[in-house]
Amino acid sequence: MDKKKVVVTGGTGYIASWIVRDLLKEGHEVRTTVRKLKDKEKYLHLLNLEKKYEGILKIYEADLIKAGSFNLAIEGADYVIHTASPFSVDSHLNPEKDLLEPAVQGTINVLEGVNQSKTVKRVVLTSSLAAIYGDNRDMRDFGIEAFDESMWNTTSSLKNNPYSYSKTMAEKKAWEIADQQERWDLVTIHPGFVFGPSLSKRVDATSIDTLRRLLSGAFRTGAPHLEYIFSDIRDIATGHIRAAFTEEAKGRYIIANENGSFLTMAKIIKQYYGNQYKLPRRKVPKLIVWAIAPMLGLSRQYIKNNVGYKLKADNSRSIKELKMSYRSLETTLIDHIEQLKKDELL
Ligand code: NAP
Fold it and tell me: How far is the CA of 232 from the centre of ligand 1 (A)?
C-alpha cells in the first residue's frame, strides 16, 4: 500500500495512541496533536514511538477550543482521524463548558483545517455508540433487537447523559460541515465501552480508570445490572485505519462486539485470577440503586432508564465492509489486566 500522510488528533489519548502506533507500523507518515507540547509526561509513549520510527512521526500542539489550532498539522495531509474529545462521565463537570463546547467546537476547528488544506480526501471521526442511543431502555422503547448505524441518540441532553449529548452534537456538526463540500468525505466510527491494553502508563482515561476501580474494590459490595456494549482497543484502532483506507467505506460504522455488565466482566476476570481482585460479589437490585443514586453521583432518572435493560449492537456493516473480526471480551480484559500488571499499575 502507498505510504500516506495521516493526522491523528489527541495523540496523548488511550485510543489515539493505538491508531498512531498501527499507522507507523504500516509505514505511514503520522502527524499527531497534543494539547500542550510542554506536558511531556502525557505523551512519553509518543516520544518512544518517535525514536523507534525515526522521521515519520511528528508531534504538533493543538487545542480543541482554539480556532486555527489544527491547521498546521493538517496542511498537506491525505487523511485526518479526529479522536480528540473529552471522555468523562464525572458528574462534577460543567456539561456545557467541559464536554459540549470542546467536542463541538473542536470538531468545527478540525474540519475548518481540513477545508483549508486542499489535500485531505477523507476524515474519520471517532464518534461513539453514545451518538446512536441515549439510555439503555431506548432499545426496548423503539421495539428493536439491536442498535444499528441508522439510529441517532434522541434522548440525551445537557442534563441527561451530557457526555452522550456532546458526542451526538459533535457528530451532527461534522456531517453538516461535510455535506457543505465535495472534496473530502466523512466516515464515523462508533465504539462501545473500550477496554484492552494501553500503550501509555496514564491511568486517567475513563476506560482505564473504570477497570482499575472494578479490580480494586470500588464495587465490592455489589454492582447493578447496567449493561454496556464492549470494544477492544486494538479492534478500534483497526476500524479507524480501515475506515480511512478502504475507498468504498462510507457513513457510520459500529465497531463493538459483546454486551454485558460489570458483573459479566467480574465473572470473566474471576475465572482467570480467582480471588486476586476485589470484584463485585453480587447484583444490587434496581430499587436499592435507585434509592442511593444521589449518593453515587447519579440521577434517579438515569437509574430508571438504564438499569436492568439489555443492550445489543449490530456490527455486521463493519464485518462486511471493513472486514472486521472481533476479539472476545475475555481476551480484551485479560490482555488489559496483564498490561496493568506489567506496568505496575495495579
Ligand atoms: P482519552 O484517553 O481521555 O483521550 C481524550 C483525548 O482528547 C486526549 O488526547 C485529550 O488530551 C484530548 N482532549 C480533550 N480535551 C482537549 C482539548 N481541549 N484540546 C485538545 N485535546 C483535548 O479518551 P479515549 O478513550 O482515548 O477517547 C478518545 C475518543 O474516543 C473520544 O472522542 C471519545 O469520546 C471516544 N470514545 C471513547 C470510548 C471509550 O470507551 N474509551 C468509547 C466511545 C468513544 P489530554 O491528554 O491533554 O487530556
Answer: 16
